[in-house]
Amino acid sequence: MHEIKPGVQYVGAFDWNRRNFDSMMQTPDGVTYNSYLIKGETATALIDTVEPRFVEGLLKDLEGVRRLDYIVIQHTEQDHTGALPVLLNKYPEAKIVCVAKAQTLLQYWFDLPTDRYMIVKDGDSIDLGGKTLTFYAMPWVHWADTMVSYLKEDRILFTCDLFGAHIAQNELFAGDDERVITAAKQYYGVIMAPYRNFITKHLERIAAMEVDLIAPSHGPLHDQPAKVIAAYREWTSDATRNLVLIPYVTMHDSTRLMVEMLVEELTKRGVTALPLDMATPDTNRLAVGFIDAKAIVWASPVVMAGAHPNVLYAALFANYLKPKAKVMAVIGSMGWGSKMVEQLTGIIGDPKVEYLEPVIGKGIPREKEREALALLAESISQKF
Questions:
Q1: Among candidate residues 79, 15, 20, the one with its CA nearest the CA of residue 216
Q2: 44/171 same-domain check
Q3: Closest CA to 346 of 312, 322, 295
Q4: Strand 147-151, strand 31-33: pairing
Q5: Quick one: pLDDT at residue 30?
Q6: Residue 161 is part of a domain; what is its CATH number?
Q7: For residue 310, what are the domain limits?
Q8: CB atoms within 10 A of CB 6
Q9: Calpha distance 241→227 (Å, rounded)
Q10: Domain boundary, last residue among 208, 236, 264
Q11: Residues 158 and 284 in one domain
Q12: Shared domain check, 37 and 126
């Protein structure tokens, strides 16, 4: 238990050894499940709980809490609600505070008595006695059930997964640590990016609030809130960098050589290229690339008449994450017939994406392929 401000305590859990989240995001620095205890003069509230494996630790932190009036559920995934059944049993007076959609989803998991719920709407408040919690519905950040909670007297905004980061450290506050912003960008890229249009609107609401501290559900607390808000404004905007992302796989080096030729030609034209070898997919780097890149070139050898499965995975991931890039191309190598180009271009469902002329060579790339790749690099540079 750590005091954040008088009457506001951190009672979350540190998962130091978790190395994968949701089976699609690498977490080399571990994960935290942030839970916050707020003690007013007349009532006590807990904001979110923890992953089921860490229930005992939360109960230990709550040993001195004789009465818990409210359990605020901002989002219904298990890393937020894992201790809910145990807490409801320990504190029979506690009410679950959530939006209506969250109640529906919680019932899928727990089938709780309806009289345990206190359903709130956007702008509703709870007076804890000298501390006031106000709730704001912010759906699709990143589920339909999401809300945030604002503690007016202490100017703390509890933002659920918004502004979160998968990084476990015993320093509770982010401060100037750039590692936190890097982790937050990876988290945004994998978890939040598909909903950037919704997030943009929610950022405007947050800008109107007086916030001294942002307390997310994962990672350190942002004691310089303007810093992470500015980062989110950049990530959710249409702005991109002078960058071509090249997710690729090579089997017998032909595709790798073509990627190197393309990188060389792009460099000549002042365009930065980032090749990502998808032999072992790094979804964090891929997702960050989707935030930054102005163009994407898919590079693959032909396997069973189509693209390599790992490149297909990267393209499917892109279709889910909705990258900002509106210019794409396909390059690669083959020995005989292929539907690779049609396969990859068909995966990306954005009608605004312009596909440039593909470059598909046979066997080892030669001067013909180099010339074609130079033309592709020129076409890409003209789009920048």
A1: 79
A2: yes
A3: 312
A4: unpaired
A5: 97
A6: 3.60.15.10
A7: 244-379
A8: 9
A9: 20
A10: 236
A11: no
A12: yes
Q: Which helix (H) or strand (E) holds 326?
A: none
Q: Tell me the C-alpha distance between 137 and 201, whole Å.
A: 12
Does any domain span residue 384?
no
In a domain, 19, yes or no: yes
| pLDDT per 10-residue tile (average), the chain, 384 residues | 95 96 94 98 98 96 96 96 96 98 95 95 98 98 97 98 96 95 98 97 96 98 98 97 98 97 98 97 96 98 95 96 96 91 91 95 95 98 95
Q: What is the pLDDT, as a whole number, of residue 350? A: 85
> pTM value?
0.95
| Pairing of the two strands 295-303 and 327-334 | parallel
Please give the structure tokens belonging to residue 384.
Answer: 């920048």
Number of domains in the chain: 2
Question: What residues pair up with 135 in beta bridges, in sequence order?
Answer: 149
Angle (CA) 153-154-158 rounded to 5° is 110
- Cα–Cα dist 73/240, whole Å: 35
pLDDT at res. 1: 81
State how beta strands 354-355 and 327-334 pair.
Answer: parallel
